[in-house]
Design goal:
The structure is a homodimer. By secondary structure, the first copy, chain A, is α/β, with parallel strands linked by helices. Chain A is 41% helix and 15% strand. A seven-stranded mixed β-sheet of chain A has the order 4-3-2-1-5-6-7, sandwiched between helices. In chain A, a hairpin with a 2-residue loop joins strand 3 and strand 4. The longest helix of chain A has 25 residues. The interface between A and B is large, with 37 and 37 residues.
Chain lengths: 350, 350
């Protein structure tokens, strides 16, 4: 029997620290307007990438590791590429989409919880006052919101809840489905790598079960290639049916130094290519770069406040500070979204 | 920062309970002599399986889930098969091989630990007195042995240590390499399933990093398809090199109810076929069986005390009691090793 009460508190501060910063940022942050670029399809596998140094570095790397007889050749089984999700594969502004899910979920669940009308942080949230909800309780309030919305049901039920939400919810600024707030150049890159016998993984600070609910459909990444943060689960019988129940206790935080740990636990091989956008991805890139043979590390730098958002060293969400310095020192590729990407978002689906 | 001291004690008793039983069994248990059967190769993908009901149930299952248009058809991506390791893919007598590794490792490390000559449980172990080593300290002593031999080095170093050991160590009874103490019928089954576009996973109570050191070479199962118990790791820089250091603290016990939890965490899909040999696999089989559509559950029943060992309901190692009852009730396949397997071990390698 797993003791949730003893293990949860020691990991709370990192998770809720990050989430809390996100919520504060949500209140303070005004993103630039986002517009949808056009997608040009051609024989070029990366048509949404301008012909700049970033694209060339990608194509050169793939060419050398896939060329038989090349000193840099890597066997297909070892062609592991890892991608952060928030800010790398899809947008993370005005806040992590999973937090928007949690806030929506509080509203949906409210009728089953009449006590929330008089209990903080839920009472303020239900009045639309996010700032007020968090003013009193801070990190503790945020953890209550996350656990009230992510635990207390089976893994199967949670998957359905996320699927339902993501099928209908809309981004607060662009009013597009979240699954269209993904980066077209990164979709092309995923497909390009897979066409070259890479195995593409998501390695996210977000919830593993949250992302799995849409990763295959949206990114072509199957559930077994998603690594993320998780809460504890418990095996139990409901009548004659076994189920895994999601418990209100953190199991693993797949962020920062947690990313190499999660990669090692799930994959057991060192990636040869890693893609991120924040300092929370730095250890994943360092871990990838430290292997022998050809390696590729890339940071997506959010520089386009017209088509998406511009933020880096001072941002509460997706802070990219140390990562920029280390990229410069080590010659890692830094994508300047404004200049390197011809298109940012895919065209709207009918 | 992960606190190892707070998390370790709460999970100790289950792990060390199982290990302790193993060691007690080692002292009491006298396995039957093991002989090497001949392997007949033919067009039959399962030549080491006699033509009995067990083999037929396997072949029928594979036929129906792979036949397009069949109501039982399963898309290749969903063809997940999970295998226990100890007692299912390789032998587990006279004790779990990983424990034999730990005992060997104490001897190897002794010169670097002069204090062990006067400290229990190591002093007794080094004199060859396993019983004495454990008589005083019990589970605590066993945990000390495991942590002294499995922690305190990088994941990379540990992998090398296991690879070196498994390349040279010999089984105490048969004097064969451990990698030849595997079941030839199960090797054929793994290959047969993969030829039918199944993805084969190991889901073991044994250590994930221990098994990964040989799973690809021995079973054709790559590291990302191995799920097992783990200790905590910590990301740190050694000079400019990042490394993952193995800490003396349990992270996850992939046994009993832990198996469905590990499967869900790593794969995120429910298997359609599960193979085990003990009550520690029961929840994995129940979890597999509870999915919709065609399912296959199989227990390997150790019934051959001439060619291997015979044990079930009363055994300290690989106890199979509830699993036998549930198999009978639910019509799961139970392999009678004596009658269903023409060959048990592969021929010795030159």
């Amino acid at each position: 029997m797993i003791s949730k009460h003893r293990s949860a508190p020691r990991k709370r501060s990192r998770l809720t620290g990050a989430l809390f910063a996100t919520v504060l940022a949500m209140i303070a942050f005004t993103p630039g307007p986002m517009t949808i670029g056009a997608t040009a399809r051609s024989a070029d596998p990366l048509p949404s990438w301008n012909n700049t140094a970033a694209k060339k570095s990608l194509v050169d790397f793939v060419a050398k590791v896939t060329k038989k007889g090349s000193p840099d050749f890597v066997a297909p089984a070892e062609r592991i590429a890892v991608f952060d999700n928030d800010g790398t594969l899809w947008s993370e502004q005005p806040m992590y989409f999973q937090l928007l899910f949690a806030l929506d979920r509080v509203k949906t669940l409210a009728p089953q919880h009449p006590e929330w009308n008089t209990t903080e942080p839920f009472a303020s949230l239900l009045k639309g006052d996010v700032k007020g909800a968090l003013a009193g309780g801070g990190e503790k309030a945020l953890m209550e919101i996350m656990m009230a919305t992510h635990a207390g049901m089976s893994t199967q039920e949670f998957g359905m809840v996320v699927k339902d939400w993501i099928a209908t919810a809309r981004h607060p600024v662009t009013k597009r489905p979240y699954t269209e707030m993904i980066y077209q150049p990164m979709l092309e890159l995923l497909a390009y790598l897979r066409a070259n016998e890479f195995k593409t993984y998501i390695v996210s600070g977000g919830g593993i079960e949250f992302i799995r609910a849409f990763s295959e459909r949206v990114y072509g990444i199957p559930p077994e290639q998603v690594i993320g943060s998780s809460i504890k689960t418990k095996f139990q019988m409901r009548g004659s049916q076994p189920e895994l129940v999601r418990l209100p206790a953190i199991n693993f935080i797949d962020d920062g130094p947690g990313k190499p740990i999660g990669i090692n636990e799930h994959i057991g091989r060192r990636p040869i290519a890693a893609f991120g956008n924040s300092d929370g991805d730095l250890q994943m890139l360092q871990w990838t770069a430290a292997g022998s043979g050809a390696r590729f590390c890339l940071y997506v730098h959010h520089t386009d406040d017209v088509r998406e958002s511009a933020y880096d060293r001072q941002s509460h969400i997706g802070k990219l500070d140390k990562g920029l310095d280390e990229s410069a020192q080590r010659g890692w590729t830094v994508v300047d979204m404004k200049n390197d990407w011809a298109t940012i978002f895919p065209p709207a689906k009918k």
